[in-house]
Every structure is written in C-alpha cells, then in structure tokens.
C-alpha cells in the first residue's frame, strides 16, 4: 500500500496506485505533479502546509515543493496561495543573486496547490538592504517552520530582490503568465475515486481512456469505480481491458475476482485468484481474497490455509486476522478464534466489527459479562449498526436481564426491521417473561423474513400448544419437520398436540418417530407410555415407562 508520507500526522494506507493520500490529500511518494515534479520525501510541515523534496524531471534538478494540505485548508486559502505564488514567480524573475531561493513554478494538480522552489549555485552574499521587506513578504508565501537538522538551510533562506542603482526607474519587465497546464484526467479520476466521488471519477477515467487506450491504470481505476457504482458487468469489461494490456499483473486478476464475487460467479472468481498466484505466488491480497471467498462458500478449512499463507507473507494484515477469527468462530474453535481476533486488535482496535466479534466469542465461552462490555464499545463506535445492538441484546438475554435485552432488540429492529434473528430472540425473551401472544407476534415477524428458521417454527408450535391452540401448533410443528425430519423435539411435541386433540394413533406414530431417532431421550418414552396406556396397551406402556426410568437413572449416574 502507498502509506502517506506524513507518517506522524496521517499515516494512512492508500492503494498502491494512489497519487494522493485519500485521508489528508497530500501527494504520495513517486507522484509526478503535472508530469514534471516527482515527489521524493516529506521534509517539513507547518500550519496547513507541507514541504517536499522533489526532482524536476525536465532537467533532473533537485527542487523543493511547498503545498497546502487539502484536509486543513479551504478553497479561499488555496486561491490566495496561488495568487501569492504567481507574485513570487514574478519577483523571482528579478533574482540573480547566487545563493538566493527562487520560486520557479506553481500550479494545481488533483486536490493540491503548490509552488516549486530552487536555488542557484551557493555563493556568500551580503544581505540586501530590502531584506526586512522581503522577510515580511516571503512569510506570506512560505509559512516559516522552525529549522531542524532534517530541513536544512533552504527553509530559512529568503527571496532577495536586486536593489536599483542611481535615480533612473527600472525598466518594466513584462508580466509572465504561466503556460496553462494540460488537464491530467487520470490524476483527477484517482483523486475523485479516493474521495468517493465515483461519478466524477468515472467521467475522468473515460476521458483518459479516450485519449490513451493503453492506459492500464485508467482501465483499472474505471473497473474499481464501476464496481462501487453497482455496475459489475461493466466493471468486468474494464478489468478485462486492463488484463489484456498487462496480463501478468496479479492486482488486476485479484480485482477481477472481486467483481466476479459480486456476480456470484464463484468458479471464475477462484480461477482469477489462481491466475494471480501463478504470476506472483507471494501476492498477499490474492491469498487473503481467496481465503475470504472460500470462507463465504463454506470451505472453512481451506479458507484457513489461505489465511495462513497470507499472514505468513504479511502478518500486519488486521483484516485477514479478523477473517481468520470469524472462520474459526464458525467452526466453534472459540479459543483459537479469540487468539486471532486479539492479533487483529493489536494492529487496529478502531473497527466496531472487531469489538463485536470478540464479544460474540466471549459469549460462546460463557462469559456474557465480558462480552457485554465489548458489545457496548461496538455500539459506541458504530451506533447505527443493527448487528451491534442485536449482539449486545443477546448478552443481556444470557444474563437474564430481559427488560434491557428487549430494549436493545427493539433498537436493532428500528435500524433493520428485516433482521430475522432479532425478531426470533425477542420472541424467546417474551416467552421467558410468559408474554406468549407478544412472543408469537415476534416469531411471525421472524418467519416473515426467514421462513427457513426451524427453531422459530418449533417455538411457535410449542407456545401454541401451551395456549391450547393445538391445531395451529400442529401446522407449526409440521413446518419445522419439513425442514428437518430428524427434529426430535418437534416429533415429541407434535405427539403431545395430537394426544390433546384425541388423535391417539397419530400421536403414537409421532412419538414412535421421536424414540426411533433418539432412543436415549426419556421424555419421548414417558409420553409414549401415556399414549399406549390411553389406548389400553398396558403392558407396552409399562415397558416404555420402565425404559424411560432406566434412562433417567443413567443420566443421574453419569
């Protein structure tokens, strides 16, 4: 990634091809301003301004570039800077004193405005009689930074104007107007993309590809932009163009894979990761992308292998540690998941999803109090996330703080009314409070958004049975059994509802299914004994009851 040159003040990790930092807007290392001044390093920073060491590619001379920080300045300040820079260039045309600093150019590229300074060959020179005036004037052009060993003498040298001799007026010098810069559409596209202005970015990339069909960076940027705009088919075509121009670039293959993932063309997605790794077996983003794709498709063990490879190449990838933690969590390997999440935390603890995931792991480890503190932090970082409120409510439910849990389920559902899990768990809390009608209403909402939620059908049937609405209960149990024919509790409770309706033979058949699938379950045998006795089959009833007691005794002795 292209880390921002302002390591202390910003330090943002940008895309490899980013010309400007998407956080503060200053140029990244290697950026060429207006096709001429290549940025090398940051040598100074003051209120709203930064100073870079750069190379003038036109004549291969070292220069200094002073620019305003886009994040810290407004449009009016940038206009004023350009006006002052124009005046400084004009004044510098009079400067011929050896050792003087001269402003030789200025302009705007992407989000920044800048001026370029250089020095003639250094020769000792007495201060000009006008130095006080120039000191005051130049402080407007170049806000002063206290000199340090890293900055050098150039920062404290002032522009000097030659003093006229005699009484004659100096000959007027024609005002120099800088040649209008050619518009850099690619730079504008990159900058708009970094700031999330995707329509503007797309227009700029289109203009670039019209002018230069072989611009790989423009096709790649266009692909990324179209994906953000929800146009994956067109994004795929753009990446195809980039790959046609640069077929051995693993980044393009990996980007193409992300588009295919959105299109749910998973086999092609995996092929792209394979291609990327063919050209660069150590391309960390291909390994991490491959792992995430495998995890989403349910290949958790294979995903872990890919994550291991990615982290072996770059152990500082917080996102990959988090993905590994999520995958281990899905495998119920909670202790290992906690270790992975803690590694992610050590790298970046600002993500609400990390706090949320760690909280979920601790709840699974039967530590709901510790989980609650983490989920509270997640809701503070990201208060508009329904998932964070839902997970916090689950902690409160496990702690039997049902009133608070209901409040947080309601917060989650206010943010996302389609969250079936929140409706379901809300129903469970209401059922625990014996608010059965309200609980049924919650189960119905859960099933409205996810009719494959087996437990919701079962719990609904159980409540209806409790309310003696046995016919409705049967319908709910049948829906649960249609989803899972081996659902023992559903067979058992279906038998009880049929018994309550006087349909004894059907009740016995349901309980036979329960004891067949779970012969070690004593409740089903007790219920079967009751039905057999009601049918007058007393000896069979005694046998079932004795077996049930035997199972209870085995449980007590275990």
UniProtKB/TrEMBL annotation:
Pfam families: TPR_1, TPR_11, TPR_16
TPR repeat start and end residues: 216-249, 250-283, 284-317, 318-351, 352-385, 386-419, 420-453, 454-487, 488-521
Residues annotated as signal peptide: none
Record field: transmembrane: none
Keywords: Repeat, TPR repeat
PANTHER family xref list: CELLULOSE SYNTHASE OPERON PROTEIN C, TPR REPEAT-CONTAINING PROTEIN MJ0798
SUPFAM superfamilies in UniProt: Protein kinase-like (PK-like) (SSF56112), TPR-like (SSF48452)
Protein name: Tetratricopeptide repeat protein
